[in-house]
Write a structure and sequence with these properties.
By secondary structure, the protein is mainly alpha-helical. Helix content is about 45%, strand content about 5%. Keywords: Endonuclease, Hydrolase, Nuclease.
Length: about 270
């Protein structure tokens, strides 16, 4: 897929996600709305292209847009004003075709009978242009953060902890029997080629722990291994963001250690 990135507020969203994942205790109430009360089970799948991390980014972005909407003074809203709402500025920047909110209001029968705040959310949340904005923003954020293995390890550890804490509820979700063991751990499954390619190119064809070349061009005996950063045995997910590229030796060492690990060493552009 080719991404036509505009990076409107994208780095802001990246910063928020980084802060939340690095201080998950402070944001425990908010995070519960993402994976708590059994919601974690809706995220169980075999390497979905719309990854668990995509779902988390969507959750954060939509939460922020909702909080920003709550700051609008609907009691004193002037539909005759020429100014744009913050969300409309985002539509404009991305070149997304949309209907102005004030034009939507004019289409309603009588402003006296309209609760403007309700009209705003009806205009926004049911629209294709809002969905397009969310999709574009999520893809841009994912594009940047997929490069950050340490952040992805942190995220996947949080998700694994959540699954483990809710493991006693697994009996309710009988539809997941093909995906989860009786101990509520993700079953091992085939890693699709698209996921391997994404991880291979992200990690530059080198073991992320010892920097050994795994391209097969320098040494045909160096075999690529795709490792779950948070092991399935530790409630890790079958998700592209939970994979990293290791050599055979490092993969065996991480399995014996039993704890999630990666490196923050990256090859420079030049």
């Amino acid at each position: 897929m080719q991404l036509n990135a505009r990076f409107y507020e994208t780095y802001y969203f990246c910063n928020v996600i980084n802060n939340v994942l690095n201080d998950s205790f402070t944001y425990a109430v908010e995070l519960n709305d993402f994976y708590g009360d059994g919601r974690v089970f809706s995220l169980i799948d075999k390497f979905p292209k719309q990854s668990v991390f995509h779902s988390f980014i969507t959750f954060v972005v939509e939460t922020i847009y909702s909080e920003n909407s709550n700051k609008i003074d609907f009691d004193n809203f002037d539909y005759r004003s020429s100014g744009l709402l913050p969300i409309e500025k985002a539509f404009e920047y991305h070149g997304i075709k949309y209907q102005l909110f004030k034009e939507h209001l004019k289409e309603l029968c009588s402003l006296k009978d309209v609760f403007i705040e309700d009209a705003y959310y009806d205009w926004l949340l049911a629209s294709q242009y809002y969905e397009d904005l969310i999709t574009q923003t999520v893809e841009e954020v994912f594009y940047l953060l997929f490069l950050n293995r340490e952040l992805l390890l942190n995220f996947n550890q949080i998700m694994a902890d959540s699954l483990e804490m809710q493991a006693s509820d697994v009996s309710v979700h009988v539809h997941l029997n093909d995906l989860l063991t009786t101990r509520c751990k993700n079953k091992r499954c085939h890693i699709p080629q698209w996921a391997k390619r994404a991880v291979y190119f992200r990690d530059r064809g080198r073991c992320v722990l010892c920097d050994k070349d795994l391209s097969g061009k320098l040494n045909i005996n160096n075999l690529e291994n795709y490792d779950h950063m948070v092991a399935l045995a530790n409630y890790g997910f079958n998700d592209v963001t939970n994979l990293q590229l290791l050599c055979k030796e490092c993969n065996q060492n991480t399995k014996s250690a039993g704890v999630g690990s990666t490196s923050n060493s990256y090859q420079g552009w030049y």
